Amino acid sequence: MTRPRYTVTVSALAAALATSALSVSLTQAQAQSSASPRIAQLPRSADQVVECEILVVGGGLAGTATAYESLLMGHTVCMTELTDWVGGQLTSQGTTALDESREQRNRLFYARGYNELRQRVERKYGELNPGNCWVSLACFMPADANAILMEMLAEAQARGGGELKWFPHTVVKDLSLNAQGDHIEEVIAIQHGPAPGTPPLNTDFLSEIIADAYTYADSDRLSKQIIQFVPAGIVAKRAAGEVDERVDWYVVEATETGEMVALSGVPYELGLDPRSPLNPSSPVTERDPYCTQGFTYTFAMEHTAEPQTFDVPDFYSIYEPYYSWEQERNFLQTAEDHFDFVFTYRRLWNAHPRASETNIFRMPVMGVGDISMQNWTWGNDYRPGTSRDNLILTHGQLQASGQLEPGGWMGGLRTDTLRRGEENAIGFFYWLTTGTTDSQIDDRFKEPDPYHRYLKGFDAPMNTAHGLSKYPYIREGRRIIGRPSPGYERGFMISEIDFSWNDFGSEFYQENLDSRMYTTMRRFLAGLYTLDTFMPGADPDDFHIRGRSRIYPDSVGIAQYAIDFHPCMKEYPHEKPGNIERPGVRQAHGQAYPAQIPLRAMIPQRIDNMLVASKSIAASYSAAAAYRVHSFEWSVGAAAAHTIDFALRQGVLPYEMVLDPSRQNPMLEGLRAELEGSGNPVQFPDTSIFNEDWTDWKPW
User: Fold this and answer.
1) What is the pLDDT of residues 289-344, one digit of tens each?
2) Which residues lie closer than 8 Å to 663 by C-beta, 6 or more apart?
3) Is pTM, for the whole model, over 0.70?
4) Residues 647, 521: contact at Cβ < 8 Å?
5) Three-class SS of residue 392?
6) What are the structural domains, with CATH classification, of the chain?
7) Which of 38, 35, 55, 101 is closest to 409 using CA atoms?
């Protein structure tokens, strides 16, 4: 292949593409704009005023990584979390089967903290996969993961000289902005504990307690403390009559659903994006904010030597029409094969490792004492997709319920849908052990298997009295719309075609995209040959297609996983007999190139001292389906920590480093160098616009 005939600059390509790109709609952004700065209103004086350099809202993996790196750099970090475990999907959500891409795992090419986490797991068990699960090379117990992460944070604090102020069982309730509305000045939170004479926390289902947790007043169940988070040193400055022009602290959005995104009023999107040249696989032509990826309450079960007895749940008949082994596989010959297949899929503990772990069909088999975590699409996944049952409330729904008013925030979730997800998960265990129906394949593959025990209690894997995970595994939250930049005049977002390995010349795209959209899509994929695509008479089917992901000059982290969907269901309710997945959502499902985390994706519009370090980065629905796994969360959290540290030291705001990413910026290059130097990669090996040989990097 010959080299391009043109000397092409990034800014020239961006300008050319901007003329034909279909960018993010402004409708949602305009609807979310506020006329005046938000001022929190407390019903009484705060019980605590806590100073921080960095406030991390959400203790999931992204939040933990932010705190870990910040502590190593000597900062004072406050971290809030609804549950009492750090680690999010790895711990409180129960998904301790690491979602990793093959080659990235083979090379151990991860952020340093993620590598350390894996090493500590291996040291504890003597191996990385004590469960001998087959979905991953790393399956282990959630409580152990929480303990390891807490050890890492404590050691980071000691080594770096930072200070961690940890607030479990704490939710954010409100915030105040400065007069210009571009800085968060304070954040109000509520920490809860059991009321005197009541059972310990983690006894109730989340749906039973979540509304109470977001309410200021004490209740019969919960005692509350109001906490006011403010910038470090501000109390003394205020007492001395000093007023800062700019707030020198940062708030990191690391919640599972993007709570700070909604509360701060920054533009965001939710659900299915309209089909466009950037997201050509979308099944809809207009945004559908109600169809988000399914959420899952995980649980653990133990294989027993003796049959167990089970009481049928009162609600079982409601959810029974949904459950299935999912699909018939040619090597699964019997009902027993199917159970082995599902049980060992995410087995967290292998009680008696055996020389032979497979049956005659080379299938993994379960043994007495083995413990499995269940996370199954046509099982305990709950996948609502309509305005009547969507879990994450839209901007309009939040306005209608008063949650966007000062003091009105209640978490932004539909409590009844949480309850249904809990019931659906409990019913799935009963179906596994007792059920005889199957909604997707022949019933002959489903027979009762009572040799299992549902694990619940505070000494059980999920550390809850009811046995479900403390919080559901969330695959998708509110996704910010980044700030305008060259080529993204309406706001930056990572898109499907930026890193998908899909065949964008297939019949689907030729038949479902009009000629202009198809040409623009192919033009975005042309890489170095983009200007060739503007030549008179150029045929889009002849356009060169790059064999790599898009390279961002402002990349501050890495991510690779397949674009993996758990689509919403077509009709209400989720469990309706005969219901099907929303057609077309899986069109984008499949392989993905090694990708990057651009700093622009972490910077919201309008608020200058907030960074997003979670699944709420600026990404389309399809992109978010890959940018949601364990190693990504760690990498984006590390990027947030180093960006904040750099910004505080240099007296610069993060957005100032990416005003025009196409032009060399010494500050941005300095940040990237510091990340690389600390063991937090900003790009994969051999990343170059000239390197299109990524064959070895297929995630599966």
Assistant:
1) 999 999 999 999 999 999 999 999 999 999 999 999 998 887 788 888 899 999 99
2) 11
3) yes
4) no
5) strand
6) 10-33+265-293+476-697 (no CATH), 48-96+141-254 (3.50.50.60), 295-454 (no CATH)
7) 38
